[in-house]
Design brief:
The chain is mainly α. It is built from 10 helices and 3 strands. It has a 3-stranded antiparallel sheet. A hairpin with a 3-residue loop joins strand 2 and strand 3. The chain starts with about 25 loop residues before the first helix and ends in a 15-residue tail after the last helix.
Length: about 260
């Protein structure tokens, strides 16, 4: 049985000490949730893989209680599914969910950028420009995702709306698995970088209507791309699964007279 199907890569110890000694239970469950989320994003835990409480507890040398709390947190965020009498599994990738995440993001981030632009300073604009450039120069898709988030959030931070920022951050984390699909396709990175540059320039000009229009188009376009990609992949997988299996060739035998 592979590490993934057993619920967590148990054969190898964590690459870094994830749990500090005598960590409070709340902190322990949060750290476990973060480690599982990272494993899902990286593909170590594939969609549909079981998340076995006993295996995870052994891996982190903890009791079942913080593991259950971590799994409940992941379920509330859409990373895991929990079925009665079946336990938890990694949530599947969904074309509908991907599109909806980016539809909601487009509305919230349009609001945020409109509130932020009047409050941007020369210093905050320099920081946004630095983060935009860092994302453009980043060749690693996994690191690019983090730099992409940092750039977007830098544009909205001057709005000073803590609740709005928290909601956007949650959606960024919810959509991270999907965004990695997009940046696994190299041709789309250049397109995204160009859209980021145009968005930054509109913010620098304090052109609120254009900035809002650009951020909406950028996010809805990503949602539509992911929806098409996942829908086409699901159709291809269904077609492959429905193809008749080749019949085994029968070996003719001859008998002596």
């Amino acid at each position: 049985m592979s590490d993934v199907t057993d619920g967590f890569p148990l054969d190898a110890p964590p690459r870094s000490p994830l749990l500090p000694a005598a960590a409070p239970r709340e902190s322990t469950s949060r750290l476990i949730a973060e480690a599982l989320r990272a494993a899902i994003v990286e593909g170590t835990l594939a969609p549909g893989a079981p998340l076995r409480q006993d295996a995870i507890a052994r891996h982190f040398s903890v009791s079942a209680i913080p593991v259950r709390e971590a799994l409940r947190q992941l379920e509330s965020e859409g990373w895991a599914k929990v079925a009665v009498n079946k336990g938890a599994t990694v949530a599947p990738l969904s074309a509908d969910e991907a599109r909806e995440i980016y539809e909601i993001r487009s509305a919230l981030e349009s609001l945020a950028i409109g509130l932020a632009i009047p409050n941007h300073t020369a210093a905050t604009l320099r920081e946004s420009a630095r983060l935009c450039r860092a994302a453009e120069l980043e060749p690693d898709p996994s690191l690019y995702v983090a730099r992409n988030v940092a750039f977007h959030m830098s544009l909205y931070a001057p709005a000073g709306r803590a609740q709005l920022e928290s909601m956007i951050d949650t959606l960024h984390r919810r959509g991270e698995r999907y965004l990695r699909l997009k940046f696994g396709l190299p041709s789309y990175k250049g397109e995204s970088d160009s859209e980021h540059t145009a968005l930054l320039e509109a913010v620098q000009r304090r052109d609120t209507p254009t900035a809002q229009k650009l951020v909406v188009a950028h996010l809805l376009g990503t949602g539509d791309l992911l929806y098409r990609f996942l829908t086409e992949r699901a159709q291809a997988e269904a077609t492959l699964a429905n193809q008749p299996k080749p019949r085994a060739r029968r070996t003719r035998t001859t008998h002596g007279s």
